[in-house]
Design goal:
CATH topology: Lipocalin
CATH architecture: Beta Barrel
Helix content: under 10%
Shape: globular
Distance between the termini: 36 Å
CATH class: Mainly Beta
Order of helices and strands: EEEEEEEEEEE
Number of domains: 1
Radius of gyration: 13 Å
Number of strands: 11
Number of helices: 0
Largest sheet: 4 strands, antiparallel
Strand content: over 45%
Strand order of the largest sheet: 4-5-6-7
């Protein structure tokens, strides 16, 4: 099973405790895998929410002006700089805004 850890703005992918890959150049503030570990959700210090493939390459930019994002099932919950929470599909389309 793979885990992901953010250190000094770099996301490291660990498998059985060994680093098998990393991405980011000091701009990643949080990252997590989706339910089947096929995609990685990242938030950058510029407020960009990106979906990345397991190898770290950018798959899709989902949102901007974010401070945090997490998977909610197959959807993505994005907390914005204005304090609102957006629920988005994996393709980035907005489902609804809360708050």
């Amino acid at each position: 099973m793979s885990t992901i850890q953010v250190n000094n703005g770099k996301a490291e992918i660990h498998r059985d405790g060994i680093v098998v890959g990393s991405f980011g150049h000091g701009e990643i503030i949080c990252a997590e895998f989706n339910h089947d570990h096929s995609l990685i959700l990242c938030v950058t210090d510029q407020g960009k929410v990106e979906l990345r493939k397991e190898n770290g390459s950018v798959h899709k930019s989902v949102a901007t002006n974010a401070v945090y994002a997490t998977f909610e099932g197959h959807d993505i919950s994005v907390t914005t700089m204005k304090g609102k929470v957006e629920l988005r599909k994996e393709n980035g389309s907005l489902i609804k805004v809360v708050g």
